[in-house]
Write a structure and sequence with these properties.
The protein has 102 residues and is an alpha+beta fold. Helices cover 25% and strands 27% of the residues. A hairpin with a 4-residue loop joins strand 5 and strand 6.
Length: 102
């Protein structure tokens, strides 16, 4: 019996832009991914300045916002996966920032 294993090779992030309503990510393979900012409630609730302070992390396969404690991966973007943060966790985070629940 022969088995076949598929290997997924992810492209690295080249550039990130955060607009009023979208996260836009340019990848090394030429694709540009645009997803709604609403997929990431911490980004929505962050200030424009906090949203602009990010790091391309994980050897180029992720984005980290240190002020918002948010991480987004290339894999998650390619699979169309929004944040999996629970409403209770988001509410605690908002409370820690002195904001009411969304």
């Amino acid at each position: 019996m022969t088995s076949v294993a598929a290997t997924l090779v992810l492209p690295k992030i080249l550039q990130v832009r955060v607009t009023e309503d979208s996260l836009v990510v340019d990848l090394e393979d030429g694709r540009t991914l645009m997803v709604p900012l609403s997929w990431y409630p911490r980004l929505v609730h962050g200030t424009p300045e906090e949203r602009q302070r990010f790091e391309i992390a994980g050897a180029g396969y992720g984005i980290h916002w240190p002020d918002l404690d948010e991480d987004v991966s290339v894999e998650g973007l390619l699979l169309g996966k929004p944040s999996a943060e629970s409403p209770a966790s988001l509410a605690r985070w908002l409370a820690s920032r002195g904001r009411k629940r969304a």
